[in-house]
Amino acid sequence: MKRVLSSILSLSLLLLGVAPAAAEISAPESGHKLLYQGHGSLRIVTSEGKVIYIDPYAGEGYDLPADLILVSHGHQDHNKVDLIQNRSENCQIIYNTDALVNGEYKTYDLGYATVEAVQAGNNRNHDINVCVGWLITLSGGVSIYATGDTSTTEQMAELAERDIHYAFFVCDGRYNMDMDEAIACAKTVKAQHSIPYHMAPGSLFDRERAELFDVPGRLIIPAGEEITLE
Fold this sequence. Notes:
By secondary structure, the protein is α/β, with parallel strands linked by helices. It has a single domain (30-220), classed as 4-Layer Sandwich (Metallo-beta-lactamase, Chain A), CATH 3.60.15. 17% of the residues lie in helices and 31% in strands. It contains 5 helices and 14 strands. The strands form 3 sheets. A 6-stranded mixed beta sheet has the order 5-4-3-2-1-14. A 6-stranded mixed beta sheet has the order 8-9-10-11-12-13, covered by helices on one side. It is globular, with a radius of gyration of 21 Å.
């Protein structure tokens, strides 16, 4: 009954040319959003409306105009930048070769985000001298760690001191670390939320493998699902 009376009152006010009270107008959602596109691909939309793509290759959601594209290494399943045709006028693309030069990992202060290249690689087919992971800090201090293709790195112990909010760990066990090693890495980094990705070659998402990722603060995000970063 109260809802009906409220609706009648709002309609009457509109007919009289009087706007309803601000409290009756639902506020727009705010905050940063992250879309897991599948495999090793992520899209972040910041609270400022900036769009960041990480390792574009899999899934959908490449329609939003890019402000920043990050490429962790040169393998084709991480650097399909041509998927992103819509780009802002000042769009930046940061490749691994830009972010890691002569052993120096670069940091980029972009105003809406700080992007740090971090160690990534293994002895399988990811040379640690040419591969990077990404640590991204957004406004409000929200941080996202995407390992890129890797096994355990020395730097992961240092990242534990950063109080990372969201950390994505590869766990395919073929080109990168297997599930047991990924679990150990997640326990080392100690992020508030640890998320499995890049779970199986040729698969956007593998629910069965994701369930094996048994760590404190585990968060499972199916491909195509978007979450709010808090």
